[in-house]
Specification:
Layout lengths: L2 H17 L7 E10 L6 E13 L3 H15 L5 E8 L9 E6 L6 E3 L6 E7 L4 H21 L3 E7 L4 H11 L5 E4 L5 H4 L7 E5 L5 E5 L7 H9 L17 H4 L10 H20 L1 H7 L4 E13 L4 E13 L2
Parallel strand pairs: 2-3, 6-7, 7-8
Antiparallel strand pairs: 1-2, 1-11, 4-5, 4-8, 6-9, 9-10, 11-12
Helix pairs in contact: 1-2
Length: 324
């Protein structure tokens, strides 16, 4: 898409964001030019991105934006539009749907029962940092079974790609006291904004999310369970709504400033021919055979914040040569 058309599209998307009280959501251009010196092709990728996770209170605005922006982007390639309201601490838990019990084939929903305290642990068998927290889940249930009875449930939601892998792993580890489910095609990771594992949620007796985040941020989960059973409130990181950074503040990050975007793009265009010549050069070919890593990358990013009407850019060049 020519730069003028690109700029027009960015402004139109910005108008839709402002109309839905989402003017702090940035509209970004991301371009990446990669030249592996020991290969035969220079690759280029350009994306127009509108991505931001919003608090659940912005759900209506996010949904309206999603519908109203469709006519503007229909049929255009190279777009990444993801403005989504995520559930977090302080929100009411919504049932995780379409997961599969580890030992069954029929899908089910995980619906909270009032009076119970839950720990939901998003994890994977292939994830090294997930293993110790899951082992601790098993240990807590063994230790406190008499105290907690059916008032505490610890639920593992595996993001593994194969359900049989989960079952074999749990059996080998002896972690059967935890209730294990296979995520499969469930949208629970999107609903709850789970972008990496391990990631846990504590649900209180009323069905509210008391904590959401990395398990390392709750060093005494036994104490947390006891407190929630008594109706007490947890405090600390991950126990309240995440503060959303304003788009204008994001634009102040190191390396972001006002640049001539067209000049940057032209320089990247020109490097494609330079990179291809380097890849064909016999001396360079001999040199790169001695290297473990050898590539050049040019990354250009432009960020337009509709609420301020300002654009800032970040332009970085990497030359990576690793070896003798």
């Amino acid at each position: 898409m020519p730069s003028e058309e690109q700029l027009t599209l960015i402004k139109k998307i910005g108008e839709v964001l402002i109309a839905n009280d989402l003017g702090d959501v940035p509209v970004e251009i991301y371009r990446e030019n990669v030249c592996p010196l020991n290969e035969t092709k220079v690759t280029n990728k350009t994306l127009l991105k509108v991505t931001k996770d919003l608090p659940s209170s912005k759900a209506d605005q996010a949904n309206k934006f999603k519908e109203e922006v469709k006519p503007l982007i229909e049929g255009i390639a190279g777009l990444e539009i993801s403005v989504v309201a995520k559930l977090g601490a302080g929100d009411v838990y919504q049932a995780i749907k379409n997961v599969t019990p580890m030992d069954k084939e029929e899908k089910c929903d995980l619906t909270h029962t009032e009076g119970q305290v839950w720990l939901i642990d998003f994890w994977a068998t292939w994830c090294p940092p997930c293993q110790k927290p899951m082992a601790h889940n098993q240990e807590m249930l063994e230790k406190r079974a008499a105290d907690w009875g059916d008032k505490v449930r610890i639920i593992g939601v595996s993001i593994d790609s194969v359900k049989d892998t989960l079952a074999k792993h749990i059996t080998a580890k002896g972690w059967e006291k935890v209730e294990h489910y296979f995520r499969g095609e469930s949208d629970c990771s999107e609903v709850y904004g789970v972008k990496g594992v391990p990631h846990v949620m504590l649900i209180d007796t009323k069905g509210n999310i008391a904590f959401k985040g990395h398990p390392a941020n709750r060093p005494d989960l036994e104490k947390d369970f006891d407190a929630l059973l008594k109706g007490e409130t947890l405090t600390g990181e991950g126990c309240g709504p995440v503060k959303q950074a304003e788009g204008g503040e994001e634009a102040k990050e190191d390396g972001w400033k006002e640049l001539d975007g067209d000049a940057c793009m032209k320089e990247i265009d020109g490097f494609t021919a330079v990179g291809e010549a380097l890849q064909k050069d016999d001396v360079m070919k001999g040199f790169t055979k001695t290297l473990m890593r050898c590539f050049c990358v040019m990354v250009y990013k432009s960020k337009y914040v509709p609420s301020t009407g300002k654009s800032t850019q970040n332009y970085e060049n990497y030359r990576v040569l690793v070896g003798p």
